[in-house]
Amino acid sequence: MPTTSSRLPAGSLLLCSLVFAAVLVGCSKPEPASERRGGIQSRPVIAAEISYSPEQVNVEAVGTSRALRSVSIRPRVAGQVESVKVEPGQKVSEGEVLFSLDSRDEALALRNAEVELEDAERLLRRYRQTGDSGAVTQSALDDAESAVARARIAVDRARVNLDYQQVKAPFTGYVGLTDIDPGAWVDTSTTLTTLDDRSTLLVTFPLPELLLGQIAIGETIELSAWRKQALVAEGRVVEIDSRVDASERTFLVRAHVDNSEDKLRPGMSFRIALTLTGNDFALIPELSLQWGPRGSFVWAVIDGVAERRVATIVQRRAGQVLVDLDLPEGALVVLEGIQMVREGMPVSVAQVVNVAGMPARTEPEVSGD
After folding, report:
1. One domain for residues 172 and 223
2. Where does the secretion signal sit in this chain (predicted)?
3. What is d(CA 346, CA 303) in angstroms, rounded to the nearest whole number?
4. Cα–Cα distance between 153 and 210 in angstroms, integer?
């Protein structure tokens, strides 16, 4: 039987050769120079530009307030109350009379002392007028001068005793409640009322001993009351205790709080909030922080290459992390595309964002021809 030839036509062989050559040329197309480095393809990533920020310690405490100046008013002498000059809650000025005691005896004593002073001064004048005649000895003249001096002291003492019958405000402030009525007998142990200068409150609060040295005079604090619509005020640290309570492991801090609007009252307790600042550390986005067998780290972009850098967490913030990182401010760390990054891998930064996540600057990729 005649055999059938299996050879293809010459035209078909030529067409197959051309198709195969085109496939080879397409497969061997060179990659752009920007996407290759040392024969390894670079990975496009989005990086974050780190900044340095101080460590912040938010502290809360409970403080108790008192008026800047607060006293219990007591009389200097015993006696019967003649009149009450003030009402509870009244604002009085320094030196204003609050209570009057029966002062008739003291007024008579003062008048008597003034009469004795007049007699002593009159006698001294006579002795001096006759001093040249020799009728008065020098000793008698000296006695007369001493008598005048003693009489003046007696007058001053009588005036003081008379003044003690008037109970006066030692400073400007607000009068508290009183149970004293006219006619009541009082002595030096009787509390007539209280007086508070509440234009400024002195708030005392404890802090843990580990914060000793981190808070300083002049530090600003924020206070709020405990009710639903809390009053908020600011204070300034004015005193720090010189010792630590051995049982509580705390130390006391005092702050001045302006109360010129008179909304706060002595004795109120407050929620204290203050922010203490420490050393500066690198601030990075939380998404840039990775974990490995040796702890936390970030991928740093150094001269277009990814490098693993140890990043020890110092403090977490909303969407950000404060870390101890050996990189200068402005250095770049990988933010997106982290999963494909490896040590020493070339990376191309498509975009740079700041720590807050907003674009800081854009670096366009370099494409080949």
Report:
1. no
2. 1-21
3. 9
4. 59
21 within a domain of the structure (yes/no): no
**Rounded to whole angstroms, how far apart are CA atoms 296 and 290?**
5
Q: In angstroms, rounded to a whole number, what is the distance separating the alpha carbons of residues 288 and 299?
A: 8
Read off the pLDDT of residues 109-148 as tens digits, 9 standing for 90 and up: 999 999 999 999 999 998 888 866 777 888 888 999 999 9
Reported as a single tens digit per residue, the pLDDT across 161-202 is 999 999 999 999 999 999 999 999 999 999 999 999 999 999
Looking at the structure, tell me whether residues 136 and 91 fall in a common domain.
no
Specify the CATH number for the domain of residue 300: 2.40.420.20
Contact 275, 59 (CB under 8 A): yes
Judged on CB neighbours under 10 Å (0-12, 13-18, 19+), 9 is exposed
DSSP string of 281-326?
EEEEEGGG-EEETTEEEEEEEETTEEEEEEEEEEEEETTEEEEEES
The whole-model pTM stands at 0.61
* Cα three-residue angle 206-211-216, rounded to 5 degrees: 85
Based on the fold, state whether residues 92 and 173 are members of the same structural domain: yes
Residue 222: which CATH number? Answer: 2.40.30.170
| 89 and 177 both lie in a single domain | yes
Domain shared by 298 and 311, yes or no: yes
- DSSP result, 217-248: TT-EEEEE-SSSS--EEEEEEEEE-SS-BTTT
Which of 156, 190, 224 corresponds to the end of one domain?
190
Domain extent at residue 222: 60-67+197-278
Q: Which of 324, 318, 204, 326 is nearest to 267 (CA)?
A: 204
Structure-token pair, residue 203: 């708030």
| Domain co-membership, 172 together with 160 | no
Structurally, the chain folds into a number of domains equal to 4
In degrees rounded to 5, what are phi and psi of residue 163?
-70, -30
Element spanning 28, H or E: none
Q: How far apart are CA 197 and CA 259, in angstroms?
A: 10
Same domain, 274 and 304: no
